[in-house]
């Protein structure tokens, strides 16, 4: 019994020792769901020290801080506890579902990986003020505001949303990017051009600010009830004053990246009243006038006239249908041509829309065009109004008579029905005689063009043989093909880098690839030989000056550090120009 007790204790100690010796390497996030204007903290934690830590790519995020490394050792009841942490701070690039992929590290010769973590990025959320946040000053001095002209409009009534960026005079804004653009669901929308807008002075919450109008949008709600206007979200690079001063006593500026949002806006759309709604109402809302006109009122049979139905005014001109006209059967009518002459400004749509009918009378006589009506909802009086046109009489002077048509139009004055007598000249407008003339024969056979086309394939055979031999020689030159391919890729990636200015991660990846491919072509080395010492040695052997080599190495270092540091477009432009200049100098100096 005593022996069994000691054996149990020994087994317990062995199991405890084995458990305490297990390696743990985990990825921990501050939250799994966040807004596009929030920050995400990711910690990679291990309980034993390791080497060659390799972070994931963080696809869908921008690294705004880190990696920060911390190590803690503690002894509790004689047992050592070790923890090492790599910390990153991430900013989402857009909404969606993303995955923080695996990180790896080597511990005692073994490679360990973290478990992927799923992250959901939603629309911008309201973040409470935190005085301890280092971005607090920036958040208090810059504001993105969405000004809605009316929060309780009628269905199909125009409202405007104006987005203004307010900036305190103490802050300097370098640039900004839209990372979340509003989707105007359940609205007809149109943006108004804001290019050329100038910075203006104004007040915000009782303080002096400068502001810029970024976007103007006209909306026509297409549903009733509470509708949501999604926020506009910007990523802004700015400089804010710090607590440090230079030797002259002036405050030094600190560069800060801040995500600002205009916030969600909700409007309550009222339904149009049912009381007094006309049967022929098609959804017109605003203030309009109706005009029905004819290009002719007197003409002959088989001539044509244009009958135009036109509505003019302010309102949702593109969102309703014009009334149809009703014509006698003796008038041949073609499908109308629809035209819109509509301008959209902050007050909504203004202009006119029209339907133009082409009408061809077949018989002589008088044909009345009956009055048509158009109804709309007037926003000023909040009531329905009806417009009616005047009757138009079309007088066909000459042409075949149509007694049935006359009976329709004048049943009291001509009660006797007669058979329709067709005019034998009703197709006189069609030509039945021709003025064709015979052409002299012109044979293509035995012409110069014929013989040239015939001999051209035979003359092209030597040229094809020469091109084929050249291609075979070029294909056999494996070493030269590698150089040409690397040169082509270098030009390609340098071009891609220029197109990606403003997108930090894409730009520096393209720039680094361009530099590597240039070295492979110039120094005749493979990717596996692209080490710093090897590059330095080969460039010196080629006769490249030391300062040019240093510039080249500094560009490569900038590409490596760009993943972990915030960089603005000015710095990207400088790095691109420096890379182009350095490549040019190496081409001139290398032997």
Describe it.
There is one protein chain. The protein is an alpha+beta fold and 591 residues long. The strands form nine sheets. Strands 11, 12, 14, 15 and 16 form a five-stranded antiparallel β-sheet that branches. Strands 21, 23, 24, 25 and 26 form a five-stranded antiparallel β-sheet that branches. Helix 5 runs antiparallel to helix 6 and helix 6 runs antiparallel to helix 8. It is flat, with a radius of gyration of 40 Å. It has four domains: 99 residues, Immunoglobulin-like (Sandwich), CATH 2.60.40.10; 134 residues, Immunoglobulin-like (Sandwich); 120 residues, Immunoglobulin-like (Sandwich), CATH 2.60.40; 112 residues, Four Helix Bundle (Hemerythrin (Met), subunit A). Strand 25 and strand 26 form a beta hairpin. It starts with a helix and ends with a helix.
């Amino acid at each position: 019994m005593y022996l069994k007790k000691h054996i149990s204790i020994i087994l317990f100690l062995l199991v405890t020792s084995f458990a305490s010796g297990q390696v743990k390497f985990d990825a921990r996030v501050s939250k799994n769901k966040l807004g596009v204007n929030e920050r995400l903290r990711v910690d990679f934690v291990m309980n034993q020290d390791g080497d060659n830590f390799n972070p994931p790519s963080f696809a869908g995020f921008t690294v705004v801080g880190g990696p920060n490394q911390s190590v803690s050792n503690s002894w509790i009841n004689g047992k050592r506890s070790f923890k090492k942490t790599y910390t990153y701070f991430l900013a989402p690039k857009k909404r969606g579902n993303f995955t923080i992929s695996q990180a790896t590290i080597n511990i005692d010769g073994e490679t360990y990986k973290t478990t992927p973590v799923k992250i959901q990025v939603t629309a911008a959320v309201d973040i409470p003020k935190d005085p301890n946040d280092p971005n607090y000053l920036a958040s208090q001095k810059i504001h993105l505001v969405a000004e809605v002209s009316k929060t309780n409009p009628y269905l199909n009534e125009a409202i405007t949303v104006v987005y203004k960026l307010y900036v305190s005079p103490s802050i300097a804004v370098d640039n900004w990017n839209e990372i979340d653009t509003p989707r105007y669901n359940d609205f007809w929308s149109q943006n108004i051009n804001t290019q050329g807008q100038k910075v203006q002075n104004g007040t915000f919450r009782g303080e002096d600010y400068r502001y810029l109008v970024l976007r103007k949008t006209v909306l026509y709600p297409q549903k009733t009830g509470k509708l949501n206007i999604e926020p506009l979200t910007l990523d802004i690079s700015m400089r804010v004053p710090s607590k440090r001063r230079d030797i002259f006593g002036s405050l030094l500026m600190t560069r800060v990246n801040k995500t600002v949002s205009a916030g969600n806006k909700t409007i309550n759309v009222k339904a149009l009243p049912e009381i007094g709604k006309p049967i022929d109402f098609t959804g017109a809302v605003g203030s309009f006038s109706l005009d029905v006109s004819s290009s002719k009122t007197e003409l002959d049979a088989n001539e044509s006239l244009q009958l135009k139905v036109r509505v003019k005014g302010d309102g949702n001109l593109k969102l309703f249908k014009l009334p149809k006209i009703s014509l006698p059967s003796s008038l041949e009518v073609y499908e109308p041509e629809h035209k819109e002459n509509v301008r959209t400004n902050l007050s909504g749509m203004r202009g006119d829309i029209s339907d133009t009918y082409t009408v061809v009378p077949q018989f002589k006589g008088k044909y009345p065009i009956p009055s048509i009506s158009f109804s709309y909802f007037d926003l000023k009086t909040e009531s329905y109004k009806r417009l009616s046109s005047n009757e138009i009489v079309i007088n066909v002077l000459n042409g075949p008579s149509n007694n049935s048509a006359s009976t329709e139009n004048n049943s009291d004055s001509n009660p006797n029905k007669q058979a329709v007598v067709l005019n034998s000249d009703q197709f006189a407008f069609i030509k039945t005689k021709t003025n064709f003339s015979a052409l002299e024969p012109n044979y293509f056979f035995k012409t110069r063009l014929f013989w040239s086309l015939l001999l051209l394939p035979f003359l092209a055979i030597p040229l094809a043989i020469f091109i084929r031999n050249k291609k075979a020689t070029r294909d056999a030159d494996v070493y030269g093909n590698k150089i040409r391919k690397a040169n082509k890729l270098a030009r390609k990636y340098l071009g891609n880098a220029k197109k990606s200015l403003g997108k930090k991660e894409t730009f520096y990846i393209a720039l680094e690839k361009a530099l590597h491919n240039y070295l492979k072509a110039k120094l005749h080395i493979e990717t596996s030989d692209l080490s710093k010492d090897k590059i330095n040695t080969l460039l010196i052997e080629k006769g490249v000056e030391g300062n040019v080599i240093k510039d080249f190495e500094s560009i490569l270092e900038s590409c490596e550090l760009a993943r972990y540091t915030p960089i603005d477009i000015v710095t990207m432009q400088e790095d691109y120009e420096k890379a182009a200049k350095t490549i040019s100098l190496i081409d001139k100096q290398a032997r």
